[in-house]
Amino acid sequence: MTPNPNGAVTNDYGGAPFFPFQHSPLSSTVGVDRQRIAGIGASYAFSNITVNGMFTNVKYEYRDGTSLRISDYDVNINYALSPSLFFNAGYVYTDGQLHNAPGDPRWHMASVSLDYFLSKRTDVILSTVGLRSLGGGTCSARLNMFRQTSEQPSFKNAS
């Protein structure tokens, strides 16, 4: 294996939401040395219902000797209420393990949505997402696509 002084993951991701994928949990100046990704999924459709499941495993090895492994367990159901209206419900459990760094990030995420197709290429989606962090120490989960509107935390750490 050839050393990668700039890190395996550099400009692929941008901004704060992707910080753990670019830098060590101990230092923002230490990049990723190696990234490994594996996953498998399945889908089964019957009548108006489609059930999907997926497992992914990602491991980041940082240049300071720390590492992060994240395993996602994902299941979701899509139900066609009509040819243009769909109900979707999903659940994801994320189990993270840090090596040579404090904390183990874990969280539950659930979502429910209604998807209405106005045309073949245009739809309107009404969606809600719930997220609960379980990681100890400095670990937390964040919904970066939404702006926090109050001083209250969006979720609590249940460690």
TrEMBL record:
Transmembrane segments: none annotated. Residues 25-124 form the Porin domain. Signal peptide: none annotated. It comes from Paraburkholderia youngii. This is Porin. Pfam families: Porin_4. One of its GO terms (cellular component) is membrane. CDD domains: gram_neg_porins (cd00342). GO terms for molecular function: porin activity.
